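Tutorial sheet, problem 5. The four components below are modelled jointly, 344 residues in total.
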Amino acid sequence: MRILDSARELFAEKGFERTTIRAVAAAASVDPALVMQYFGSKRELFSQAVKVVPAPLTATDTDELVDQLLASLGLKLGGLPEGALAMMRSMLTDQAAADHVRVSLGRQIDSVGAALPAAEDPQLRAALVVTALLGVTIGHQLLGVTALREVPADHIAALLRPAIKVLAGPPG
Amino acid sequence: MRILDSARELFAEKGFERTTIRAVAAAASVDPALVMQYFGSKRELFSQAVKVVPAPLTATDTDELVDQLLASLGLKLGGLPEGALAMMRSMLTDQAAADHVRVSLGRQIDSVGAALPAAEDPQLRAALVVTALLGVTIGHQLLGVTALREVPADHIAALLRPAIKVLAGPPG
DNA sequence: CCATTCGCTCAACACTTGTTGACCCAATCA
DNA sequence: TGATTGGGTCAACAAGTGTTGAGCGAATGG
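Model answer (structure tokens):
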């Protein structure tokens, strides 16, 4: 739907707070009241707009796991779906978004921790892997750090891979 | 000053947008108009409140560099100054904060890139090191990722160190 | 042909925000 | 004592917000 697309785009660009119903409506060439009629509230519009199904991690060996992680954080070809960007954009300033991201990352960390070679602190190592990748994604997609702009995602992935494997634990 | 302390605290907790002059004034037991009289505008109050002098990187060898990086991103004892947290909290949703962080990270990346062993892509590797650490800090300090809470900063630093060295490039 | 529904729009409400100008009141000074 | 200054407060403004309820016009159904 046109409204959801405009909403997703604006939420990804400006975050929850700074995106107004009126702006979404204007971007979709529609009356603000219509947005309310369809979605009931700004929060609900946000929820619908950012809805994204996280691909579950199905990897068994570490190599595959790293690749799936890189992909799920947009560090391989294709980048992130705009809904995920919208969620990330708001996660530091919106309680609901923060909660969602926290449990979402938590789940991912649990998966990764379970899949890690039985090093010490698998849960902690997993958390570091995931948050480190999150940081790269933020710098790349949300902050536009200049040294990362225009760098193809695979190149980034290639440089990250060995470091992640070290962080994941002693080679099993 | 009491106003600046309250402002810093609130900015760090809620970000620029969601922190109101009235809330800052109330927290400092002061009239909102007085805050304006002292600082002229909310933006200026923010600037003064988050002002923080980034410790320059003076390291020569990689080990020392990594330690300084960990420290400057709050991953060693002491955590980050509240002003830095406030800046980071707002960086995804406030243009001015985003600009500030981008150039600040850019500077840090340049320093790190210059100090790296002459691997290929030193600038890019430096950017990945810095943003990865940024991500861990966000997860730890701003998002409260459960697997990272209550973990002493040195422990985190210890696990990160080897991975960072790998990411920084082939051992010189 | 009239009544009714349904998608949509308009204008407005209630509230919050940053910001300002008039004002007050105690201390200073002549 | 009387005038003046200066730190501090009060009430208000103008703009922007999410949200709502009355109403419009066209399609639908009898």
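Marking note: Residues 30-34, 37 of chain A lie near DNA strand C (CB under 10 Å from a C1'). Full credit if you identified this.
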